[in-house]
Structure formats: structure tokens, C-alpha cells
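Title: Comparing notes on inverse folding

I've been comparing how different people in this forum approach sequence design from structure. To keep things fair, I'm posting one structure and asking everyone to reply with a full sequence. Here's the target:
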């Protein structure tokens, strides 16, 4: 009852609707608080802490009554929020990078990753599997970092994808399923005829589904080879079923046996993904040993990262079943946030007045277009584009600010002291700390008019050249510390390159006549639209020889 008494002062002067919200949140927090005092295996991130993160973010974003309510309930002061000593949220802590960057002997991210691996990604937990996972995590991560964090390697991989050819077929101007590209099949495609009033033929599509699957079709072969996608017809749909519906429920502790359709379908999708990834790594191992490969599959374009992980699996004696389970986080991590972010970037650029033309002017030197006939990309300079197009980068950073929702979580291995202005917080070993980075993004004291899309807020003059350059500033889209996203270099280049290519040759208008952006709901990293956006896509046309409009 003390929790309710401490929060009661927050309920004065509220509307009836807000009062009901407060009551519901108090009840949830009481459940969280009670769960926090139950025993929990060391190093296993508790399900109630996931709820606490979500509730805390919601309350802090409510500003007035939300902050007052939370301040009456939290255990510590300053930048620490949390209703128990077992889990504390670091909110806008100035020194958060230093805290999160401490060595694994002090704060550890592998324990959190192992929790996700077993609770969400479906790995079967045994003492032997846990020991092998902890012992080999660093070696399994190294090949991924070599491909996805290295600037030159990431650029080379994207160049090998032949983005100009793929973007030229972004839509195929057909409603007949047999002529659709893989990425169009989930987009509810409808061909729209042009007419004598200078309207170009177009295709009406669900933009979120189209763009999400398009990016996945580009990215997956760069890691696992073309044969994987061609051989496995359900791995894209299963990914989104798992990510959108099943992942969040597993994070908050919904049991796998719960009698809900969304749980049954999500579990089935996860099992199919395990099976396909297990079969893939069996073929990779056969290829590496020089044995006959199942189905005579072509393994020649499997990335060095996948080959490197396979070698570690073999050396550490992971079973094939374990390899399939271990690989799901990599497949998910490559696509689950990157592809929805590409969607949001396109939405903001096309829907915001004046921004599309400015982006097209900036990227035009790096995306060469055909000078006659149907407008197509003939060449693309990815390295120069991702290095020099600072306004496009600023657009992406502003999209991160509005659509990204990253949280860094660590396990406290030994006692630490966090200095926080006039406060000093002593945290015990065996507890958890979280940093919900997106709270900064909506703070009007940091970003003026935070609800608006204003890319210029991320452009600052370079001290040496005086030219405007895009800088993250207070944003932390990839998390913080040693466990930041391992694919961040590749992911950012991929988003910039695909967006530039699409923008260069495709026009896009809302099917309903004017842009109406849907509301956002929390996702598993990037926010999701509450509904898809129907748009009509048409190819840009030549207004005069060599010039597009």
C-alpha cells in the first residue's frame, strides 16, 4: 500500500481519463514491484524489468503527471529510476557512455544476450550449451564485426548486391503474382493505368511491406548467399511474424503454451526459421569440409562472416540444432530494425515539403541515371555517396530520433558506483541497469519542436572546413558501450544507399491524395506503424533529354 500512498499526490487535478491511466499503471507497478522480490537466477534478465522499462518510458514521456507519479515511486534520485534495487534505469545520465563501456568483469552484456537467446530466440537451455555460448561469444561475434563494422568491407558487400539493378525493379508494374518480385508479394500490389492527361502508369502498394521485404531481399544474400533465400520461401514472412507478434510477448514472459493464435503462429514461424538456418549451416559445413553439399547448393557467395561463424561452431562442437538456434539472432538482427527504418526514412523524405528535391539535388552526382528512355540507374558511387551526402545523413539521423527506440541493458557483475551530479549511487552485484536512449529524442529542452521532422538540426559547421556535416549529437541509435549494434556501419550504409537509389528514379504519392502518417507503436527496436501506408509509385520521367523531373 505504501506504493499507492506515495503515488496518490500525482492523481490530483487529473481528468477522468488520466486518472484511470494512473490507476492502471499503479496496479502494473505493484505487480512489477512484487515480482522484483521473487528469486531469480543470477544473470537472467527478469521479465518484470521489461515491463518496468516500458512503463517508465511512457510515464516520462507524459511529462507532467507521468513524471510526478514516477518520481513518487522510484527508489533513488537524480538520473536513476526504478522501483526496486534489482533494476535501475539510467535516464539522461550525462556519463552513460562511460558507465556502459566498463569491462565485462564489472558490467556484462553477454548475460542479457543469453537471456534473449533462450527466452525469445528459442535456444534450449542446458548447462553444456550455456558454457559453450559464454566461452565462444567473442569468437562468434568477431566475423560479424569484420564484415559489418569495417567501412571498406561494408561498402564492398553493398556494391556486390548490384543495388542499381534491383532498385530498377523496385516495382514491376503488374498485378499478376507470377510476375511480381519476391519483395512485392506481401505489398497488395495493384497496377494503376496512366491516361492521356500526362499521368504516368503506377503501382499502388503497401509501402511498409514493400520496403521492408525489399531491404531484406538485398541484405540476406550478402550474409548467407543467394541460395538461402531462393531455397527457403517462407523465411521473410516468418521473420516478420516472429518479430512483430511473437518477440514482444516472449520478452514480457507470456508462456509458449498460451492458447493464443499469435503465440501458436509465432512459435511455428520461429521453428521454421530454426530449421532453415540449421539446414543452411549443415550445407556450409559440408562446403567447408569439401563434402558433397545437400541439393548441390551453391555456397560460393556465402559471406566470410557466415563461414567464420561456421568454423567456430565446428571447433566448439555445437550441434546442428544449436547452430540454427544461435543463428536466428543474427538473421533477425540484420533485418528487424534496418528495414523498417528504411521505410520511415522514405516516408519522411517523400511526405515533408521541400525535402525530396533537396535530397535529390545532393545525391545526383553519385547516382548516375540513363539519359534516354525509361529512367534507370546506370552506376552508383556508394562510398562517395555515404561519405559526402550530409543532408541525406541528417534526414536519417532525424528519422532515428523519431522512429528508433533503443535500450542498453547490462548485468552488474560486481559493485559499481555511479556519479550523477550531486548524487552518488552504489549498485550491488547481481542487479541490472538499463538506459532507454529514446527519451532524449522527445525532450523539447534538447530538440526544439520534437514532433516535427527537421533534419537541419543535425547539421553543424565543421571546425576545419566550415562545411555542414551531420552529427549524432545526443542521439544513441545503436545503443551505448561495448555491446553497441555490431552491424551499425553496414546498416547505415545500406539504408543510405537504398534510399538514395529509390529516391533517384521513383516518384511516390499517397493513394488517398494527401500524406497521412500513421501513429507509431513500440516495436523490437524501431517503432512500427499502426497500419501500412498505401502509395502509388511511378517512375520519374525525362522532361528533356538527359534531365529528369
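Reply #1:
Here's my take.
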Amino acid at each position: 500500500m505504501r506504493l499507492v500512498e506515495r503515488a496518490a499526490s500525482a492523481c490530483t487535478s487529473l481528468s477522468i481519463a488520466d486518472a484511470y491511466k494512473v490507476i492502471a499503471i499503479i496496479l502494473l507497478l505493484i505487480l512489477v514491484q512484487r515480482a522484483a522480490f521473487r528469486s531469480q537466477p543470477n544473470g537472467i534478465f527478469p521479465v518484470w524489468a521489461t515491463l518496468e522499462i516500458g512503463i517508465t518510458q511512457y510515464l516520462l514521456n507524459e511529462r507532467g503527471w507521468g513524471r510526478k507519479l514516477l518520481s513518487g515511486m522510484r527508489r533513488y534520485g537524480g538520473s536513476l529510476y526504478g522501483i526496486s534495487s534489482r533494476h535501475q534505469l539510467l535516464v539522461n545520465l550525462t556519463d552513460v557512455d562511460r558507465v556502459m563501456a566498463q569491462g565485462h568483469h564489472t558490467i556484462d552484456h553477454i548475460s542479457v544476450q543469453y537471456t534473449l537467446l533462450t527466452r525469445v530466440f528459442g535456444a534450449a537451455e542446458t548447462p553444456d550449451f550455456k558454457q559453450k555460448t559464454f566461452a565462444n561469444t567473442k569468437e562468434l561475434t568477431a566475423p560479424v564485426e569484420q564484415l559489418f563494422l569495417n567501412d571498406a568491407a561494408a561498402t564492398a558487400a553493398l556494391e556486390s548486391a548490384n543495388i542499381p539493378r534491383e532498385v530498377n525493379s523496385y516495382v514491376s508494374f503488374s498485378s499478376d503474382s507470377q510476375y511480381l518480385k519476391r519483395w512485392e508479394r506481401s505489398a497488395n500490389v495493384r497496377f494503376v493505368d496512366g491516361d492521356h492527361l500526362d499521368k504516368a502508369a503506377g503501382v499502388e502498394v503497401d509501402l511498409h511491406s514493400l520496403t521492408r521485404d525489399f531491404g531484406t531481399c538485398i541484405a540476406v544474400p550478402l550474409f548467407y548467399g543467394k541460395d538461402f533465400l531462393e531455397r527457403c520461401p517462407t523465411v521473410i514472412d516468418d521473420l516478420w511474424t516472429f518479430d512483430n507478434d511473437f518477440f514482444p510477448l516472449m520478452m514480457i514472459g507470456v508462456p509458449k503454451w498460451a492458447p493464443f493464435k499469435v503465440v501458436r503462429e509465432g512459435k511455428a514461424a520461429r521453428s521454421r526459421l530454426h530449421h532453415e538456418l540449421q539446414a543452411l549451416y549443415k550445407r556450409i559445413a559440408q562446403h567447408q569440409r569439401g563434402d558433397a553439399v545437400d541439393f548441390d547448393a551453391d555456397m560460393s557467395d556465402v559471406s566470410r562472416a557466415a563461414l567464420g561463424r561456421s568454423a567456430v561452431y565446428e571447433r566448439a562442437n555445437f550441434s546442428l540444432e544449436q547452430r540454427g538456434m544461435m543463428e536466428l539472432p543474427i538473421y533477425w538482427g540484420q533485418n528487424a530494425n534496418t528495414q523498417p527504418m528504411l521505410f520511415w526514412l522514405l516516408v519522411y523524405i517523400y511526405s515533408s515539403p521541400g525535402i525530396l528535391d533537396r535530397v535529390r539535388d545532393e545525391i545526383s552526382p553519385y547516382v548516375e541515371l540513363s539519359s534516354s528512355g525509361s529512367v534507370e540507374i546506370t552506376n552508383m558511387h556508394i562510398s562517395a555517396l555515404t561519405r559526402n551526402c550530409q543532408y541525406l545523413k541528417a534526414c536519417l539521423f532525424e528519422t532515428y530520433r523519431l522512429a528508433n527506440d533503443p535500450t542498453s541493458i547490462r548485468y552488474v557483475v560486481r559493485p559499481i558506483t555511479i556519479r550523477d551530479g550531486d548524487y552518488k549511487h552504489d549498485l550491488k552485484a547481481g542487479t541490472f541497469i538499463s538506459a532507454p536512449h529514446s527519451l532524449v529524442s522527445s525532450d523539447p529542452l534538447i530538440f526544439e519542436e520534437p514532433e516535427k521532422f527537421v533534419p537541419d538540426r543535425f547539421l553543424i559547421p565543421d571546425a576545419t572546413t566550415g562545411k555542414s556535416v551531420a552529427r549524432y549529437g545526443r542521439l544513441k541509435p545503436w545503443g551505448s558501450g561495448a555491446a553497441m549494434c555490431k552491424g551499425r556501419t553496414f546498416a547505415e550504409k545500406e539504408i543510405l544507399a537504398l534510399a538514395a537509389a529509390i529516391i533517384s528514379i521513383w516518384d511516390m504519392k499517397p493513394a488517398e491524395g494527401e500524406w497521412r502518417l500513421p501513429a507509431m507503436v513500440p516495436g523490437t527496436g524501431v517503432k512500427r506503424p499502426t497500419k501500412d501506408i498505401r502509395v502509388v509509385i511511378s517512375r520519374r520521367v525525362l522532361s528533356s533529354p538527359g534531365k529528369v523531373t
